[in-house]
Amino acid sequence: MKKWTRGHTVGVGIGLIALTNAVALGGVWWNRSATPESALTLSQREL
Amino acid sequence: MLHLDAAQRAAVDQHHEHLLAEFAALFDVDRDSRVKRLSLGMRVASFLGALALAASIFFLFYQFWGHFAEAAQVGILIVSALASFGLTMWLQAHDATRYFTKLAALVAVACFVLNIMMLGQIFNITPTDNALLPWAAMAFLLAYSCDLRLLLAAGICCVIAWFQARVGAWHGVYWLHAGERPENFFPVAALLFVFPSLVAHRRFPSFAATYRVFGLLCLFIPLLILSHRGWASHLDLDPDLIEGGFFLVVGLTAVLILLVLTRLRRTFRPPAGEGAP
């Protein structure tokens, strides 16, 4: 079996951070890309 | 008997001094109790200093956090997670004491947890127990690469939380409330207890005990809770019966059977070498 090196740890760590952020941000992008079912416009007074 | 004259004794002493100096230079070992106390004091001081530094950085960002744009906030979170992880790896290659590597590893996991938690807050993402998995993965990765039991415990806690949430969700309980049913912890208790027997930890002798301790905690704390709140059980039994020690009797019987089986297996195990060609 191939020995686990620091290079493996670096690769897995960076991959984990990148993948987790990609999944979270991808979900956000997918959620916002759809056409909104309804929209509510607030005036300055209501804000 | 060997008698050394003064010159030979001095040469031996010099050799020992040289060896000690070499070990101190190479492995940063403490040569006597005074140096040991001093290095312990320095470790405590540097730990408190690192904690104060981390808190001050956190509050500095917290003060101006609202003024940053969304993209900048996301960028800061990702860069902080990557930078702290990179710092840990760099320190691992250069820090002979490994103490600062361990501090950096703790900071790296904290940054990663903060990264995902803050993303959830910024974009109002529905809370999910799946976030526990990457946190556990990062904690395990750094625990095994830096030989850090504290991070192993953090990773195990994440696994426990995820497992009991899943078991609860399969019963139809919302994952944030799954902990209200103590029996949800029993499967992960069994898993944690068996895991060190399945995977050898020769390079990490203290890790196996940590898994077993958490396995036992996942068994005994729910038992303690069930002895006070029998109605929290999944079983359709009288709460008084459960509080009266139903699980305790079942658990002790299981442990007794396990002990008897283990003893029988040891008794009837063939001697080493028997059956070998």
Short key terms for the protein model shown above:
heterodimer; A: 47 residues; mainly alpha; rod-shaped; B: 277 residues; 10 helices; disordered C terminus
Written description of the protein model:
With 47 residues, chain A is an all-alpha fold. Helix content of chain A is 60%, strand content 0%. Chain A contains one helix and no strands. The mean pLDDT of chain A is 88. The radius of gyration of chain B is 26 Å and the shape is flat. Chain B starts with 5 loop residues before the first helix and ends in a 10-residue tail after the last helix. Chain B is 73% helix and 0% strand. Chain B has ten helices and no strands.
Topology:
The complex is a heterodimer of chains A (47) and B (277).
Chain A: H1 6-33
Chain B: H1 6-27, H2 33-64, H3 70-94, H4 99-122, H5 132-146, H6 149-170, H7 186-198, H8 205-226, H9 239-243, H10 246-267
Helix pairs in contact in B: 3-4, 4-5, 5-6, 6-7, 6-8, 7-8
Quaternary: heterodimer
**Could you tell me the mean pLDDT of chain A?**
88
Biggest interface, chains and residues, is:
A-B, 16 and 22 residues
Radius of gyration computed on alpha carbons of chain B: 26 Å
Task: Please estimate the helix content of chain B.
Answer: over 70%
Number of strands of chain B: 0
Total of DSSP H or I helical runs spanning 4+ residues of chain A: 1
Topology of chain B as a string of helices (H) and strands (E): HHHHHHHHHH
Structure at a glance:
The complex is a heterodimer of chains A (47) and B (277). Chain A is mainly alpha-helical and 47 residues long.
